[in-house]
From TrEMBL:
Domain of life: Bacteria
Keywords, in A-Z order: Endonuclease, Hydrolase, Nuclease
Spans annotated as Disordered: 1-36
CDD domains xref list: PoNe_Nuclease
Example of a GO MF term: nucleic acid binding
Protein's recorded name: UPF0102 protein SAMN05421773_108165
Source organism of the structure: Streptomyces aidingensis
Pfam families: UPF0102
PANTHER family registered for this protein in UniProt: UPF0102 PROTEIN YRAN
Length: 165
């Protein structure tokens, strides 16, 4: 008669190996998430620097509500072209990628994301701008995309697309 003890030990060893593999996969997933979050924060710092160099004032960073998050909200007092009647609120979506990745950062906002950004911008205006100013920004609202590409060597490449969404 076969011993059930050996079968049990083999099954337990197999279960133990599966648990170790699952724990290792979870650890790698957490590390990738931390790395992606750090990459995103770095890209946002570069984007803020670029906006300030262009003369924009940063009003809010990483603003969150139940519907989502806005990376950067800024104010542009004298937009390029001078067609504005006053300050423009600029909502900036920042996409940061490493060189050689599957998608260029400037390709990171599709129609669904653009619509979501418009909804979030309206909510930000209602919760932050209107209580402080009493009326919408005279120059309106613009949604920009800032792409940050990190090459293997050399400085980051930062691109700013105005009115991208």
């Amino acid at each position: 008669m076969p011993s059930h003890t050996g079968d049990h030990a083999r099954r337990t060893a197999g279960e133990e190996a599966a648990e170790k593999a699952a724990a290792e996969a979870a650890r790698r997933r957490r590390e990738r998430q931390r790395s992606a979050a750090a990459l995103g924060r770095y890209g946002e710092r570069l984007a803020v620097r670029r906006l300030r160099e262009a003369g924009l004032a940063v009003l809010d960073r990483n603003w969150r509500c139940a519907e989502g998050e806005l990376d950067i909200v800024a104010r542009e007092d004298a937009p390029a072209g001078g067609r504005s009647a006053g300050p423009v609120v600029v909502v900036c979506e920042v996409k940061t990628r490493r060189a050689g990745g599957p998608q260029h950062p400037m390709a990171g906002v599709g129609p669904a994301k653009a619509e979501r950004l418009r909804r979030l911008a309206a909510r930000w205006l209602a919760e932050r701008w209107l209580p402080a100013h009493g009326s919408p920004p005279p120059g309106g609202v613009r949604i920009d995309l800032i792409g940050v590409l990190l090459p293997d060597r050399g400085p980051a490449v930062v691109q700013h697309a105005r009115g991208a969404a």
